[in-house]
């Protein structure tokens, strides 16, 4: 099972736009974490010069639209995708991260996918430019963006026979459950809300399980399917 989260990235104090972009790319492209750069893939840019190409697109955007960057503008977005230990190879993870980024951005944004193997769980860092490839507009980070990413990610995991988070099978509701759901207290509805609330706050499979246990759930794994029960 892969968990995902998305974070907007800003310039921050004491940095220029160029420095901020370079810092972001340098961190995810660390050769010690990416098998000497073998686990880095780019789209719409060369991963070795992605910072300069991101910046060029932003300058072309200003020239084309006349809009000047504001102090609180987002310069890029960071998506983290973490996999269950032992379930995927680094190369497969990098390909899956690329598929996720390409589908989510619709091929409209430059991005790099850097797969890190320095931890006990393999994880991908996806950095995509907030400015589109055609330099005419910027990414719209709507309020439930993370749900779209999770849905794409879950489908890709299923297609590649990787485990996914699955809620208990839907069956016919007993009257008590139906009545509770109407009052907003159904345990299945509560589980959905809890998962939606927890996922954006974690960065790995283990963190997700630990967070769900803190929420009071017992967790069982059967045939790569997670099930939850309130303890």
What are the main properties of this structure?
alpha+beta, 7 helices, globular, 231 residues, five-stranded antiparallel beta sheet
What does this structure look like?
The chain is α+β, with helices and mostly antiparallel strands. Helices cover 39% and strands 23% of the residues. It contains seven helices and eight strands. It has a five-stranded antiparallel beta sheet, with helices on both faces. A three-stranded mixed beta sheet has the order 6-8-7. Helix 1 (17-28) packs antiparallel against helix 2 (50-65) and helix 3 crosses helix 4 (145-159). The longest helix has 16 residues, at 50-65. The protein starts with a strand and ends with a strand.
Strands, helices and their partners?
Elements: E1 2-9, H1 17-28, E2 40-43, H2 50-65, E3 76-83, H3 90-105, E4 109-116, E5 123-132, H4 145-159, E6 164-165, H5 175-182, H6 187-198, H7 205-214, E7 217-222, E8 225-230
Parallel strand pairs: 6-8
Antiparallel strand pairs: 1-3, 2-4, 3-5, 4-5, 7-8
Helix pairs in contact: 1-2, 3-4
Radius of gyration: 20 Å
Overall average residue pLDDT? 84
Specify the helix fraction band: 25-40%
Count all strands and give the number.
8
- Spatial order of the strands forming the largest sheet: 1-3-5-4-2
Structural class: alpha+beta
- Please provide the ordered H/E string of secondary-structure elements: EHEHEHEEHEHHHEE
Principal-axis shape equals globular
Beta-strand level of the residues, as a percent range? 15-25%
Which stretches are low in confidence, meaning pLDDT under 50 for 5 or more residues running? none
Straight-line distance between termini: 23 Å
Continuous helix count: 7
The biggest sheet amounts to:
5 strands, antiparallel
């Amino acid at each position: 099972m892969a968990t995902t989260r998305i974070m907007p990235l800003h310039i921050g104090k004491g940095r220029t736009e160029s420095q901020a972009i370079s810092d972001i790319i340098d961190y995810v492209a660390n050769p010690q974490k990416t098998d000497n750069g073998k686990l880095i893939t780019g789209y719409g840019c060369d991963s070795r010069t992605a910072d300069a190409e991101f910046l060029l697109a932003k300058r072309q955007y200003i020239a084309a639209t006349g809009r000047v960057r504001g102090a609180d503008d987002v310069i890029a977005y960071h998506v983290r995708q973490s996999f269950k230990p032992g379930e995927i190879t680094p190369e497969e993870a990098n390909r899956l991260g690329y598929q996720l980024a390409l589908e989510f951005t619709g091929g409209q944004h430059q991005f790099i996918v850097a797969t890190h193997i320095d931890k006990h769980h393999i994880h991908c860092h996806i950095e995509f430019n907030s400015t589109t490839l055609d330099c005419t507009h910027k990414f719209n980070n709507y309020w439930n963006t993370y749900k779209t990413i999770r849905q794409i990610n879950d489908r890709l995991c299923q297609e590649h026979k990787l485990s996914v988070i699955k809620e208990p099978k839907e069956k016919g509701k007993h009257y008590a459950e139906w009545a509770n759901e109407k009052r907003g207290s159904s345990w299945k509805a509560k589980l959905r809300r809890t998962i939606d609330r927890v996922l954006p706050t974690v960065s790995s499979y283990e963190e997700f399980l630990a967070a769900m246990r803190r929420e009071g759930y017992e967790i069982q794994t059967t045939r790569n399917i997670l099930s939850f029960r309130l303890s």
